[in-house]
Amino acid sequence: SDSNSSGYDLVRTLRMAGYGMLIIGPSLHYWFNFVSRVFPKRDLFSTFTKMVLGQMVYGPTVTALFFSLNAALQGESGSEIIGRLKRDLVPTLKSGVMYWPICDFVTFRFVPVHLQPLVSNSFSYLWTVYLTYMASLSKVSTS
């Protein structure tokens, strides 16, 4: 939406809340349960394996889904969405590599699995501020 950058954007807030409730919340629940079944220990090997899987599988998937859904809900065309992914996905994932490993280490090493989605969502708050900024960048020119 083309709202005033200094004003409150209710539609953007609703998009972000919907993504969090319908996509991130449930997917984190299943992701943490999955990796804890496959790697049930909290030793360093299991912790680092879960971190790598998060960076290589979960993170790229939900980030690409976020950019795609967010752009589509703003009326961007398929080619504009592809252009946005080409421009923004890799820089966002690189930023994620600087942020998520420490969050994941704390979560996987020290937090019981039933609380891991809650702890991860707490870390996600700051990440969402960054994602919202990246998603608010202008459309990609497709001409």
Taken as a percent bin, the fraction of beta residues is under 5%
Strand count, sense and barrel status of the largest sheet are: none
Q: State the helicity in percent bands.
A: over 70%
Oligomer: single chain
> Helix/strand/pairing class, anyone?
mainly alpha
Shape: elongated
Mean pLDDT: 90
Unreliable sequence segments: none
How many distinct beta strands? 0
Radius of gyration of CA atoms, rounded to a whole number: 16 Å
Number of helices, where a helix is a run of at least 4 consecutive DSSP H or I residues: 4
CA(first)-CA(last) distance: 21 Å
How are the SSEs ordered, and which strands pair?
Layout: H1 10-38, H2 44-73, H3 78-110, H4 116-135
Descriptive notes:
The structure is a single chain. With 143 residues, this protein is an all-alpha fold. Helices cover 78% and strands 0% of the residues. The chain has 4 helices and no strands. The chain has helices spanning 10-38, 44-73, 78-110, 116-135. Helix 1 (10-38) packs antiparallel against helix 2 (44-73), helix 2 packs antiparallel against helix 3 (78-110) and helix 3 (78-110) runs antiparallel to helix 4. The radius of gyration is 16 Å and the shape is elongated. The mean pLDDT is 90.
